[in-house]
Design brief:
Helix 1 (about 15-35) crosses helix 2. This protein has six helices and seven strands. It has helices spanning about 15-35, 40-50, 100-115, 140-150, 170-175, 190-195; strands at about 5-10, 60-65, 70-80, 120-130, 160-165, 180-185, 200-205. With about 210 residues, the protein is α+β, with helices and mostly antiparallel strands.
């Protein structure tokens, strides 16, 4: 039986909707207890955010595609000494008003607490998601290799980092295979209350001497 290859493509506007649905599929257990939004409402919120905040000079998203279907995605963000902070304004309220102010406020709070403050020289994996029906097929590893290549192409960035839930041992094992090491373990009652996640591990891969793409 022939299996179609999985290809990686740069994020494009045509992928906003399927990527939004994939993010909901992967992270609904974090956002739905907080916002009480349905899958379709959360997906629409993410789609609006992707529309208003496409890839910038300091961010990049890859999309894994098989048979025309989005099966995975990964987002990178980085910070260098030369780059100035860009001011991100929230999208127009008119696009969110159907969700209600209180739901939008809770979503904004959740996104704020999940946002990592980058250090100069850091390349950060902001999110990685693989469709449940395609897990165990190498999609996550393919996306992580893309992230490694992108990081190695930027010698001014000395580390690649990410956060992983203390409960997600499968993902942690993959990251350890790729030479990530746990730098800190963070326990947060706020995170427990908002996302039902008490412990997060901050994992880092340092650039070795002479390492390049």
């Amino acid at each position: 039986m022939h299996v179609s290859p999985i290809t990686l493509e740069p994020m494009q506007a045509k992928y906003n909707q399927p990527v939004s649905r994939l993010l909901v599929e992967s992270f609904r257990n974090k956002f739905q207890p907080l916002t009480k939004m349905s899958d379709s409402e959360l997906a629409r919120c993410f789609e609006i955010l992707l529309h208003h905040f496409p890839d910038e000079p300091t961010s990049k998203r890859a999309v894994a595609v098989q048979n025309g279907e989005v099966v995975g995605t990964l987002s990178l963000k980085w910070k260098t000494a030369e780059e100035t902070k860009q001011e991100n304004l929230f999208p127009p309220w008119d696009e969110f008003k159907t969700f209600g102010k209180w739901q939008l406020l809770k979503l904004t709070i959740g996104l704020y607490f999940l946002t990592h403050q980058l250090k100069v020289g850091e390349c950060y994996i902001a999110d990685v998601a693989v469709h449940p029906l395609h897990q165990g097929k190498g999609v996550g590893k393919l996306l992580m290799q893309w992230a490694l290549n992108e990081w190695q192409d930027r010698p001014q960035l000395d580390q690649l980092s990410l956060h992983v839930s203390g409960k997600n041992q499968r993902a942690k094992q993959l990251y350890e295979q790729l030479s990530f090491c746990t730098q800190t373990r963070q326990q947060s009652l706020t995170s427990l209350l908002l996302f039902k996640e008490y412990e997060w591990e901050y994992m880092v891969r340092q650039r070795e001497a002479g390492e390049s793409a």
